[in-house]
Amino acid sequence: MSKTAVIIGATGLIGSELLRQLLESSEIEKVISLSRRELPLNSAKLESHIVDFQHLDQYRHLIKGDLFFSCLGTTKKKAGSLSAQRKIDFEYQLEAARIAASNSIPHYLLISSSGANPKSFSSYLKMKGELEDRVKALSFQCISIFQPSLLMGERKEHRFAEELGAKLLPLLCRLPGLRKFRPISDRQLASKMLEIALAGRSAEQVYRLDELFL
Question: What is the largest CA-CA distance in the chain?
């Protein structure tokens, strides 16, 4: 049966690649995108909406389907402050998840981060862990959480630390015991998310590090 997928964050690194794969999939009949800016592509399968995430409840009639992909994310530097980053990475995503659950979307899929932990000393990893815990309490039939290592791909903005990591981490991960921490490409992660989405599972599952590789 063809499915309807709802996605937030389709303009980001993983979201844009996932959107491309969703539109190419014969098992996806319709894709509903909610984003803060216009998408750079068109498709007969795509229903694109520019929304104000601070008033997401106004768009709850759009958040209906079989799959909900949460791909929002930013950096503290880009957002301007930790509180501004939290609004995007935590508050917007949690509100979207609540609406998706109340609209009975059965399968929720979230891009989180390796090391996500609500008790972490890292504000970023703590925030990611808190979001995971809050989402797990919602009434989805299936929850799939993806915790990748460093994400690789063609970003629109320059990120020095990530670019340096993309050069060094693959070399370090050749050492015994470190292979599971190797970086993952946007295409690989998006492919794994789509595979899990179409597998028809009905349980909570967290996919960590090397479990994300096909």
Answer: 51
